[in-house]
Amino acid sequence: MKTKIITAIYDNLFGSDLGGRINRGGHYRYSLRSLLKMTDADFVCYTSEEEIEDLKHFFYVDNNVSSEKLILKTFNLRSFEFTEKINKLKNIVETQKSDRCVEIQYAKFVWVNNEITNEYDNIFWFDAGLSHTGLIPPKYMDETKGYWEKYYESSLFNNIFLKNLINHCGDKIFVCAKENVMNYWSGTVPEQYYNQRDMSYHIIGGFFGGKGEKVSEYCELFKKYTNQLLDNEPILYHEEHVMCLIFYNHNEMFNPKYFDIWWHEGERISGIDMEEYTKTRKSFYKVIEELN
User: Fold this and answer.
1) Structural domain boundaries of the chain?
2) By CB atoms within 10 Å of each CB, which of 3, 70, 196, 265 scores lowest?
3) Which of 206, 222, 214 is nearest to 257 (CA)?
């Protein structure tokens, strides 16, 4: 049974017509290096023409990662199937101030769909930056080495986790669903797109997937609903909003795991006793912990 994990690294998009987080290159690279401990999977990472040579040097030379285990591919975010519709709605001035890139959000499903072949039984998307101490407490980080390991090298991403994730999926799609009433996170798309509108859980885009044929169906539904929103709404919705819509309109497709909050007990937030707070609310990292 073969598994492929798809991801992407695009750094320094903040201030551009694409929008995105600033100076995240080290975060993404060292986090992806941590994810590569799932050695039972093959990885494909999409990136820009400007970044690919640096990424090749970091992974293939500095960290001795096999070019067969991690394939790096270029992709032009300014020219793909949603570009024309995105550009009609995009406010460039606001985009330049934003730390989110809608092109990357929508391209996740393009990239994943591109990588579905008969050679692989399971296909997953993982955000390259998922392994970091903002989401995972110090007890699961490597604090014995340097700065990058302390903040981005987690023991939670391994082959046991990957095996259990695949088993949890069964013949359905895995997604993470964040509680969105007591611990509100996000709104959703207009009510008319829902069979029955529901905001009680918000689906996150950090990692998802399952059997190739089911993921293909998921990608087609994402394309269908995204085009409907692009054609009929005056704003650009995040990919997670579309994922929520699919989750509620096609709930039978999914085998989710649920959590309440992003924070963990290792964080320090003024006025909050995090040890007590996290006893009654499930942190995101607990989803990954359970699959270990």
Assistant:
1) 3-290
2) 196
3) 206
